[in-house]
Amino acid sequence: MTEILKGNLVHTPSFGRLETLPGGFLLLEDGVVRGLYRSLPREYAACPVTDWGEALILPSFADMHLHAPQYPMLGMGMDLPLLDWLNAYTFRTEARFTDAAYARRVYRQLAEDLISSGTTRVAMFSSCHTDATLILMEELERAGVTGYVGRVNMDRNSGAVQEETEASLSETRRWLDACRFPHVRPILTPRFTPSCTDELMAALGELARERDLPVQSHLSENSGEIAWVRELHPDCGQYWETYAKYGLWKPGTLMAHCVHSDSRERQAMADAGVWAVHCAASNVNLCSGTAPVRRLLDQGVQVALGSDIAGGDLLAMNKAVVMAIRASKLRQMETGEPFLTVPEAFYLGSAAGCRYCGGGAGFETGYPLHAIVVDDAAMPEPARSLELAERFERAVYLMDKRHIRAVYSEGRRVLG
Ligand code: GUN
Ligand code: FE
What we know:
Layout: E1 2-14, E2 17-29, E3 32-37, E4 49-59, E5 61-67, H1 82-95, H2 100-116, E6 119-125, H3 130-143, E7 146-150, E8 152-153, H4 165-178, E9 184-186, E10 189-190, H5 198-210, E11 216-219, H6 223-232, H7 239-244, E12 254-257, H8 263-272, E13 275-278, H9 280-285, H10 293-298, E14 303-305, H11 317-335, H12 342-349, H13 351-356, E15 371-374, H14 388-398, E16 404-409, E17 412-415
The structure holds guanine and fe (iii) ion (FE).
Guanine binds near residues 82, 86, 192, 282 and 311.
């Protein structure tokens, strides 16, 4: 079916480049973007039109790192550093997900909250519970959230959620065999080096190769964590080598944080095609540091953004975009590295993750539509009429659920 969306179109077709089409037309064929027009070509005059009036139509967000079972502990333990926070709050919270009914309630709420906040793509950590992970995937699929979910592997230093090595592997295989969701795919998820034995890491690397699966984990988030990894792997010069050693360091591997990744570690990422996922709110909440995003980008590393719920407290990705901008400004004041502009950070919070998931950048033709419709009329009345680019900037800073009138995911309207 051919249809047209009409409205104020704004997107970032490439990193840092903002394109605005006031009162523009977006042509869809079975949900796939076929063209953007400033005025409608005559040949489409008879097509059905959804007219969003004065509203803004923007690409939806991609949250490329969050922990679904930590949603119940949002805003808790925020005065602790990473390793204490994991032990005092996180593992206990995740232990609740042996309860399938509890998992269903929490994950249904999370999936709905993602969509109503404008997030349609994710790379998510579940817990080490196979059934709860399948429930999570089902709830995301039902709500219209697309992307990747990982059942977490953790067979040491993991308190109430520690697994036996063999069980971790056999449950991972059981989970993979049960994954049959068209838009929510599996990603192997060793939690991080301190929570996985060498034996487990080696077997996961083998599984990734055997079944051609992507991998996600954490890297160089916190100085205590990095010192611990050095003790655990005295043979590895740097943290990343503990993943490389077992075949987990490969094109498309997602590494959250990279706060303390130096030039050599960044180069290893660029060379291998490993992505960095920047989670600014979490980095500040847990006093981890400010990630060197500009340096990562300058060295050719692919970067996307994540909320890192619940180290991060902001599920709404426009807030994560703004946090990334603020963190980059703090870094500029310290180091002189140029901060992220609004179009740059918006690209990282939308197009970058969308591309990771096989989609297009912004409203790129040939890819299913992922978009939000934002009504900024309820925002404070401006002192003069605004250019569309100014309205876009204001929407990135100010929008919340109340302003999001509709959400399109994978070419389908899933809200509004
Ligand atoms: N490193 C290992 N596990 C976690 C987690 O749950 N959150 C964060 N922020 N870092 C981690
Ligand atoms: Fe995390």
